[in-house]
# Entry
Amino acid sequence: MTYSPANGVLDRDGLSALIQLLGARGRTVIGPTVRDGAVVLDEIASADDLPFGWDTEVEAGRYRLVPRADGAVFAHTAGPQAWKTFLHPQRERLWSAERMPDGRLSVTEENPERPSYAFLGVRPCDLRAIAIQDRVLAGGRYPDRGYEERRTGAFLIAAECTEPGATCFCVSMGGGPAADAGFDLALTEVLDETGHRFLVRSGSEAGQDVLAQVPRRPADLATEHAARAAVDAARDRMGRAMPPVDLRTLMGESLEADRWDDVAARCLTCGNCTMACPTCFCTTTEEVTDLTGDHAERWLRWDSCFDMDFSYLHGGPVRSSARSRYRQWLTHKLSTWYEQFGSSGCVGCGRCVTWCPAGIDITEEATALHDELAGRLRREKQKETER
# Structure
């Protein structure tokens, strides 16, 4: 693992100064904060808004906020929201139309002033997720202009992981707890006998410019070694892992697997996994009118492949069963995403595992599919041998 050189060390006051500086430069600072029994992403004004002293206990279908004695701020795992909530909002008006007194129709395209965001505490898995959504929504022939504008102006401050959760599996998806690219600044939290502090690195000219205005002390070897050791140790403590096989091949050869019936019997097709996923991007449009019919609006909103109407064509939905809808989601995420966008659609953040009300675990399902496929191939080989 290679790391960019450290640029200094921040204490809690330095972290608050960073937040205040970004706010003074006209940025809307979004970071983790505690609300309604969870660590959520919301606008913050100072370091006091951050979840100092809070940890999370997670498992499949389970999330609990618990206090911790050491005052760590980035010890929690990913909450119910992803950063796409701000870059690719759940609902956005595209245009509105008014019927004029003379009967003509006046259509006004929505062109709001978009906030200049600064995201504080972006996990390395979420950095990868943002990069994936960049390819999906800002690449290609028909980019999403709203996404482009929000993303171009966003300032990203990563928080490297030192305590992975029980549902994390980023390493098995080719990532890891270290922030290697895609950030303006990266923080690594260190807590030891010499104090509570944050090693900070810049990853862009914009990051260097901001950091030059923030009070900090020079990076010392002890802090650098402690930070790197904590991140490297986290790599070996992932709570889960995908089976070490070619997932693209596995999905392609498992389309008729019996396991899909097993998971379909448990899946509620509620779409929680797609809503919490940091890379799922599907949308639909809807028109709404007032009671008079003189005013109409078109809205863009999130959609899910678990929705019965998602694949509706004339005559009915293409994927009417829970089996077919779950299979579509998993095979697209782990396999056919490559054909469209050149990478997997999964970054191993574990949100789909944590926030599934039925406790369905994507790593368990992939492993079960692998075991079923391996068993089928063994039986076929044995039959060939017996001939």
User: Anything to note?
Assistant: The chain is about 35% helix and 25% strand. The chain has a mean pLDDT of 94.
